[in-house]
Amino acid sequence: MKRKPKDILFVSIQLILFFAYLFRFSPIDFEISSWLQYIGLIFSITGMIIGIASLLALNRNLSIFPTPKQTAELIQSGIYKYIRHPIYTGVLFFVFGYALYSENTLRMIISVSLYILFKLKATYEEELLHNKFANYSEYKKTSGTFLPKI
Question: SS in 3 state form for 36-102?
């Protein structure tokens, strides 16, 4: 299956941001109280749990590319009952939480960049899912993009 240019672009930018997240530029780091750091740590751990639960729920449907596999099924159970893109949610919770915990400004900037990228990627992905699954519009009405609907 030939990949669409948008698929490659989104995944490439995502990988570059993940790689950049590994670094620190100390002169711009910030300091916060230890209780805020621990809140960041809790967010990171929560993000890992959400991410693992999401990966397990997707099973064979998992792909790093936004375009769904030809054999993909629309998962609407487990965490996917409430959130349409819980892997992105898990990653965002982790990166924002760890940026806070590590008091790292560069990581915080990259976290914001990942949020913007995931918003764009999710919008593109949802267009494709809407075209693939007839009941996707109904699913969107009952679930949130990154957080459950209230």
Answer: HHHHHHHHHHHHHHHHHHHHHHHHHHCCCCCCCCCCCCCCCCHHHHCECCHHHHHHHHHHHHHHHHC
Report the Cα–Cα distance between both ends of the chain, in Å, rounded: 39
Can you read off the two tokens belonging to residue 99? 């940026």
Helices (H), 59-104: 86-101
d(CA 91, CA 115): 9
Domain residue extents for the chain: 33-60+75-143
At residue 3, the pLDDT reads 87
pLDDT reported for residue 122: 97
pTM: 0.94
> Rounded CA gap, 129 and 90, in Å?
20
pLDDT, tens digit, 9 for 90 and up, residues 70-106: 898 999 999 999 999 999 999 999 999 999 999 999 9
Q: Specify whether the CB–CB gap between 42 and 65 falls below 8 A.
A: no
